[in-house]
Design brief:
- Helix content is about 40%, strand content about 25%.
- The protein has 8 helices and 13 strands.
- It has helices spanning about 10-25, 35-45, 60-65, 80-90, 100-120, 150-160, 170-175, 185-205, and strands spanning about 5, 25-30, 50, 70-75, 95, 125, 130-135, 140, 145, 165-170, 210, 215-220, 225-230.
- Strand 4, helix 4 (about 80-90) and strand 5 form a beta-alpha-beta unit.
């Protein structure tokens, strides 16, 4: 079941969207400011974001650069073409002007979820000299292949899709459930310890950092991730 985050300080619009999305079978997260949204997304999994621009504190435009690897549909009363172009070039996947037709919004959500799913499946993840191929399930450090268990692979894939971002332990367990339903809160620490040891054995570098009391993050020298489309 897909989860959609509604980031909008308008309670009435948010309630309407939440009711419609629930009827369509989606789970819903809510945030009413940009700052709250950052915290929400660090603690919970979302598959798509509906983002208003006029938010208290951190605005939607200021929030946009902080969100990576998630489709974002901007919903705004701004109708200027230059605003739309700037936001689309700045990371938004789509733009819908208020007032909007709910059927059109649902169609756009379906399209963006499908596109995101297809792009994720066909992309090779690369962070510094660490590479992961979702198609072949191969992992390498430099030119050296690294053999991982199913659970270790699922954890690394999640961390590589969010480099430099601290992922809470509860979120890791939730996100890898489909791939490894046998991983539990008590066994997660051991799986990550084994993963760190295998990666470190290649060149002595520790790629995964534990953030005490919160979770784990993948460290890289540039704090960026490159997605390379795999050729058929």
């Amino acid at each position: 079941m897909k989860t959609i985050a509604i980031i909008d300080d308008d309670i009435h619009i948010g309630n309407m969207l939440e009711e419609v999305l629930h009827r369509e079978g989606y789970l819903v997260l809510r945030a009413y400011s940009g700052t709250e949204a950052l915290y929400l997304l660090s603690q919970h999994r979302a598959d798509l974001i509906l983002l208003d621009l006029m938010l208290p504190g951190l605005s939607g435009e200021e929030l946009l650069p902080h969100i990576h690897n998630l489709p974002i549909i901007v919903i705004s009363a701004k109708i200027d073409v230059q605003d739309k172009v700037r936001l689309l070039l700045g990371g938004a996947a789509d733009y819908l002007t208020k007032p909007f037709d709910i059927k059109e919004l649902l169609a756009r959500i379906t399209v963006q979820l499908r596109k995101h799913h297809d792009s994720v499946l066909s992309a090779i993840l690369s962070v510094d000299d660490l590479k992961l191929d979702p198609s072949s399930h191969e992992v390498s450090v430099g030119n050296c292949p690294v053999k991982l268990t199913k659970t270790e692979y699922a954890i690394l894939k999640l961390l590589m899709r969010n480099p430099g971002q601290v992922i809470a332990k509860a979120v890791i367990l939730e996100r890898i459930t489909e791939d490894t339903p046998d991983c539990t809160d008590s066994s997660l620490k051991q799986h990550i310890s084994n993963l760190r040891r295998k990666l470190r054995a290649v060149n002595g570098r520790d790629y995964i950092e534990a953030v005490w009391g919160i979770g784990f993050k993948l460290t890289d020298s540039s704090s960026t991730v490159q997605l390379k489309t795999k050729l058929p």
